[in-house]
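Q: Predict the bound structure with guanosine-5'-diphosphate.
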Amino acid sequence: LGGSISRALAQMSNATVIDEKVLNDCLNEISRALLQADVQFKMVRDMQANIKRIVNLEALAAGTNKRRIMQQAVFTELCNMLDPGKPSFTPKKGKPSVVMFVGLQGSGKTTTCTKYAYYHQRKGFKPALVCADTFRAGAFDQLKQNATKAKIPFYGSYMESDPVKIAVEGVERFKKENCDLIIVDTSGRHKQEAALFEEMRQVSEATKPDLVIFVMDSSIGQAAFDQAQAFKQSVSVGAVIITKMDGHAKGGGALSAVAATKSPVIFIGTGEHIDEFEVFDVKPFVSRLLGMGDWSGFMDKIHEVVPTDQQPELLQKLSEGSFTLRLMYEQFQNILKMGPIGQVFSMLPGFSAELMPKGHEKESQAKIKRYMTMMDSMTDAELDSTNPKLMTESRITRIARGSGRPVRDVMDMLEEYKRLAKIWGKMKGLKIPKKGEMSAL
Ligand code: GDP
Ligand code: MG
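A: Predicted complex:
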């Protein structure tokens, strides 16, 4: 933390002494934002003290933008708080893993189970869903419906009332069928009750999950810590998923969940639909907590990656809501021009977590080049269109043939485009900075 503050300080040209009042005002303002975002009261207080200590130590001189320095310090601190220091278990293809979902009723377990299964299915896993919720009427039907839509095998019963029995049967069956990701959905209760936790303990003991995921609704507010802790005390929670991030809640409870379970957040749910599910990315999440919006981080990254002469045009297009395949192509070019991907300090929003996972830089680079080869076989009309319906089967086949790639790869590239278009599409309607204002943002 000290390092980033000294860096921030060093960037400031105008050296004056930070005065206590400005510092306090600033911190109070940030704290208010965090409380509104449901960050636990105690955490906000601790952080406030922490930041004060750190900033004072180094703040012999300060720059013109004190608010920004404070925000930076808090930003880094929050990022650290969301990092429990050890990664969660990740399933491997071809090796059977059991993943158990726990959480209160209505938190989004059943929905998230299917999203999680579908996400891994698209990555080449053979997932399966087991419904061990015998508490709520209709639970099995809901899971069955979701699973059928996503073409994922499922197991459950309308008759059996013992969740442990069903869980064990389901896990055994899918192990025999060589599924490599067996997901056990469990029941919840409206309240934290002893019976629920005893049931979770038994299901966990019987199925020996490789990973227990705690699912938490982002809108539960200050209750997050106690809830997460209660689950952690009965089963060994190893990861957290925060749901309903498409709503009003900013998800400050995530900090509590990480602290209480000592496990990382791995995904967030951003809607009811099966593909409204994102790999958790700490920086945009923290920006949102601080009420900085995605906007400032987005601008920073554009400055880093996009050449200055291209920036106004890119922003103009994004403000019109037209993220075309050609724009994606140009951003790929920019990234590749910056040298080996592993050395690029920071990627454009959406490009990092999914397209370029850490430790797979070589593959990512090859993938980007492959995408570009396929785009080279596209017509101008295709590159400039924002209408996904334009990409008919015959066009896809033609592009595949022209680039010498399988149709699957073209589909893959178009999926990636859709994903990015969704993220970048959020910039629609943005106010475009005038000349000279760019660097001030
Ligand atoms: P469970 O009781 O924990 O299994 O929760 P469900 O999976 O049945 O979800 C409860 C409700 O929340 C359902 O109406 C879901 O559609 C909804 N839901 C789940 N995840 C999300 C999300 O990320 N965003 C939104 N908007 N709704 C969600
Ligand atoms: Mg359910």
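A: The chain has 19 helices and eight strands.
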